[in-house]
Amino acid sequence: MSNDNDHRVNAPDGTPVAYESHVPTHREAEPIPDPGLPAHTWRPTDVDPKAEKRAERQIAAMFVAAMVFAVLFVVAYFSFSVGDNWDTFAGMGASTVSLGVTLGMSLLLIGTGIIHLARKLMADHEMVEMRHPAASPPEDREATVQALNDGLDEAGIGRRPLVRNTMLGAVGILGLPAVVLLRDLAPGNALDISKLGHTIWEPGMRLVRDVVGTPILASEVETGDLINAAPEAMFPSEENGYPELEGAEEQAEKAKGAIIIVRMDPDELTDATQPDKWTVDGIICYSKICTHVGCPISLYERTTHHVLCPCHQSTFDLADGAKVVFGPAARPLPQLPIAVDDEGYLVAQSDFTEPIGASFWEREKL
Amino acid sequence: MRLLNRTAGRLSRHRRGPLAGLAVLLLGLLVSGSLYTALAPAQADNQPSETEQVAQGKELFLASCSFCHGQNGEGVPTVRDGYQLGPSLVGVGAAAVDFQVGTGRMPMASPGAQAPRKRVVFNDDEVAALAAYVASLGPGPAIPNESDYSIEGLSDEEREEAISRGGQIFLTNCTACHNFNGAGGAMPRGGYAPSLHGIEGKYIYEALLTGPQQMPNFSNGNLSPEEKRDVIAYLGSLEETPEYAGFTLGGLGPVSEGLFAWFVGIGGLVGAAVWIASHTTRSSKGKVNA
Q: Model ipTM?
């Protein structure tokens, strides 16, 4: 081992190499002398040709394995069936698992190969880089500001306010075409907010079970029941004569018309639910759309009559006119006035009497 | 012939004896009695009658349930208005008892927000007796038959249809609380909707009928018996279906998956980077010198 103090290290072949020290000279005055860097210890791969060869082979093996996995990825892609009748492997989708494993292994092996190369074979010498201030030198900054000012001066923007103002105006007004284009991305006439104020519900329209579309006999609904329901118009048939809706219109009406029906002991209803006018023997119907930001809610606790929105935990008391008892919602859920028709099925008395769902600026005007 | 005649002659001699009629009568009774014992339906004699069952159920009820539900199942209110130690059991029906007691939820270990499923403390006969007693308090839903919730009798095509319809009904009515694949979820005030994985069809059917704890009812006027059967078929199919995209991490949705990605995924990467940087490639045993 060479003397630590002379800041010299040996090359693998034993010849001394100069160690470039960046220690400033004024350090001599400091109370504790700079100890410098410890003597360099060479890696086995630097001094042992056998170790070097072994590392080379290891790295190459990793890269070859990465290639094999990449090819296996392609093989797996074509050999496992997907779609309706997919292959399984250990209770999982064979295609997904094999694609993930092969691509992951390929990338991992390239990574480990590169790290192995850097640690075992790349030139091994220590470097010292002194820190510099993050800012550019003052002369560079001055030169840049000078160039900028020269440019502005030559363009004469400061001296010609007419040019400056019209230029700003021309760029600014480009926002207008964008607004017009964006406005028309909304289906229908976006400025016509009147449709936010009403839904597809109309007097005499039956309340039907969501998904299956069957009407609901009031006498069959039991206390404690929760029925996720929809307007009958969402299930058009020749019998009921409602027109077939399509595309965005169907989706919008479906979203706006969704309701929940619950039945509770009529004594538990407060006057806020209009028990004499809007309910049928304790059967009560509300919009399913939260008044906060419009999530569909049906997380209902039957003993407390609370319904909770899963998005932001707004909680409504369905026995008390869906009053907000917790959370960010500002208004109760709109109640749908219901009645029974001649055959005993639940029907709507009218549309909702207020806009359903989240708030918007002109809501009070509707 | 002579032999026959002789035997007949001997028999007829005895028949005239004074006890012959009685002997024949006894013999006949013995034969028919033992034949009946051997051939009659076996359970007919060890099945308690309904009255006996109700009486046994009442005894069990008084010992194990009446503290919270009252001595006649009328419920016990607390001092806070509108709160109950235990609700009235009049009209909850045998299905509710079979669900609550048969899954070990009742008797509760302690009052609280949740009645968790735990070890069942009654045997099948005792559960049946309790169910009979509570059913006698007032009319309510009965314990469903297996044909109500099983799709055994359906053709393959009908089964597939039932499962897909059940899936839609499940996603509309059940996912709000029980999560999109039935893994359960949190409820207000410390409660939770339990996982539906591995639950017997009978108990799911009973829970739909009776609405245990905070769960709303899905009575036959709400979801028809076939729709309930379809939901159960869908839940069964969820368990049989292999997971297409690999491990589900409990199927709890973005929260558990995000936690896994951040802690296990990114944490693992950071750990690997630290491990690489902290291990030297320089030989530590015997410094290599030139």
A: 0.75
